[in-house]
Amino acid sequence: MRAHPRLSLNQATIKYASLHDALAVTADAGFASIGLWREPIAEVGLREAERLVADSGLRVSSLCRGGFITTPPGAARAAALDDNRRALDEAAAVGAPTLVLVVGGLPDGSRDLLGARTRVAEAVADLVEHAEQVGVQLAIEPLHPMYVSDRAVVSTLAQALDIAEYFPASAVGVVVDTFHVWWDPDVLRQIARAGAGGRIAAYQVCDWATPLPADVLLARHHVGDGVIDFGSLTRAVVEAGYGGDVEVEIFNQDVWDADPRAVARRVIESFDAVVVPHLAV
């Protein structure tokens, strides 16, 4: 079995695999691309991570994650910005064209949602020069509104684009993640808007099913196991001109507990059945 040439296995889908094992599982399953996370890179060190990625023969579709940039001015905000610059350096080192930004929720004790969103835009402005220097695109990822208090004050593609469009498209784009945007009545128009501006930095897919688990972070499912219309979303992304990798990114305890090799095979099978019919090569 070979994966579709644009299918990428996001490392979060096989969360418990080390970087070495994740690369091996992904390559052995027939994928051409993998989406990496910073924590497994840190476990082995950046220099070793570079070697492992190079030896694997895989493309790196993205690096997760930067962000958490809603903190008010002060030492904590300066540290967050420095960490994002390091993340950009790491992305460049492993060959990732994109650094995914999960922008962060409300600071502790705050109810100022508009202020938090303003600070996201200000932080992106602070990071753009470094992103351009290292050749990595910042990708603002809107998250479903249930995460607005603790993970992302940017909830829609429109909000993400309102920030991104202040900056060159080569430096700042957006992530279209089906789990986070499928509910939005304006999503198709916003995908077209993102495409028109060359702003689609990544397309990530997984499914939504209810009831949600107690930890809603772990609510993602294999494509086809829930209610998301992958046909309309995928066609919209294709028609918007996006031709990059498509990452399957799943946070789900049952998936994490399964054999990573079996998970990789299931990802290929479900992607072929549900997404590929709507995806132009």
DSSP strand count = 10
Mean pLDDT: 97
CATH class: Alpha Beta
CATH topology (fold) name: TIM Barrel
Radius of gyration: 18 Å
Low-confidence stretches: none
Q: Describe the biggest sheet?
A: 8 strands, parallel, barrel
Please identify which CATH superfamily we are dealing with.
Divalent-metal-dependent TIM barrel enzymes
Describe the structure.
The protein has 281 residues and is of the alpha/beta class. The protein has one domain (7-278): Divalent-metal-dependent TIM barrel enzymes (TIM Barrel, Alpha-Beta Barrel). Helices cover 43% and strands 16% of the residues. The chain contains eleven helices and ten strands. The strands form two sheets. The chain has an eight-stranded parallel beta barrel, surrounded by seven helices. Strands 8-9 form a two-stranded antiparallel sheet. Helix 8 (187-196) packs parallel to helix 9.
Brief descriptors of the model:
globular; 8-stranded parallel β-barrel; two-stranded antiparallel sheet; 10 strands; alpha/beta; TIM Barrel; 281 residues
Summary, kept brief:
This protein has 281 residues and is α/β, with parallel strands linked by helices. It has helices at 19-28, 38-44, 46-56, 75-94, 113-134, 157-164, 178-181, 187-196, 230-239, 253-257, 260-274; strands spanning 7-10, 33-37, 59-67, 98-102, 137-140, 172-177, 200-205, 207-208, 220-221, 246-248.
